Amino acid sequence: MKEPPSSTSTSSGSSRPPLLQEPRGFGGMNVSPFRGGGMNGQMGGGPRGGGGLFNSPMPDSDIHSGGLMGSGQGQGGPFMGGAGGPGGASLSGMGQPQPGLPQQGAVLMVYGLNKDKMNADRIFNLLCLYGNIVRIKFLKTKEGCAMVQMGDALAVERAVANLNNTTFFGCKMQLGYSKQAFLADVQQPYDLPDGTASFKDYMGNKNNRFINPEMASKNRIQPPSKILHFFNTPPGLDEDTLKQVFLEGEVLEPKSIKLFPSKTERSSSGLLEFNNISEALEALVVGNHAPIPNPNSKFPFIMKLCFSSSRHIPNKMAE
Q1: Which residue windows does the record flag with biased composition (Low complexity) (predicted)?
Q2: Which of 52, 63, 117, 247 could form a disulfide with 46 if both were Cys (CB 3.0 to 4.6 A apart)?
Q3: How far is CA 22 from the centre of its chain?
Q4: Over the stretch 235-255, which tens digit does the pLDDT of each residue have?
Q5: Cα(32)–Cα(53) distance, rounded to whole angstroms?
């Protein structure tokens, strides 16, 4: 009797595990396995022996060892919205670090935050544009300093490359790499000046934008700009409702708003222009994921913001 084919074989006869075989771990959802801790008590990704993208826990040597940061179509990495995605990445050396490469984990150091204006959710609102957020922890002994465990080392690299030395709320934020591989749970966090907790776990948070390949592919990695793109807002949205979000957050309202012609009646989107990048950053950390009342339901829309590649808002949008 002929044995059934192994679950790890492919149509081409390769014994390589399938790239997208039921990744688990992000709050119970079928998602990309994270490196850097928190998944089933392991440091390396999916459940031990559970298939997925990595067949065994990956050391914290960082994803350089797998060729994901190399040249060619693989640049960008799995679930990160890169040009190649999983298909272009070299998986031959994914399980072992190569000599001479830096030992980089997935924890980001954040310095120079305005201690009265910033909290965990506002850090999340900014960093979620560059990768998944796992945990955020403010340091009690260092005012304006926080640690952020991201989904993988590539997310940390992107955040540093795009956000280091940006200025908002009157402070220059500086980013760096932590030697810690993951952030441990904090049972009794202290209160920040605004009354929110100094530690927050975002595992399974639906506002993470790189949860699966489809979601990740929709993200365009952009450096900060003075124009924000907004989406997932109610149909028929008016400018006053948008401005109110920022006024309630005690930041400056946009100087110009452009609503895109709606392709469907299910939601709306458009552009917000601010006077400079600092104002746009402040608006993003305050307004990203703000609830917008839904006239047709008791459940609000959760507005999403990201940096736009546009240099200015045109007077007329193409129909």
Answers
A1: 1-18
A2: 52
A3: 21
A4: 989 999 999 999 999 999 999
A5: 8
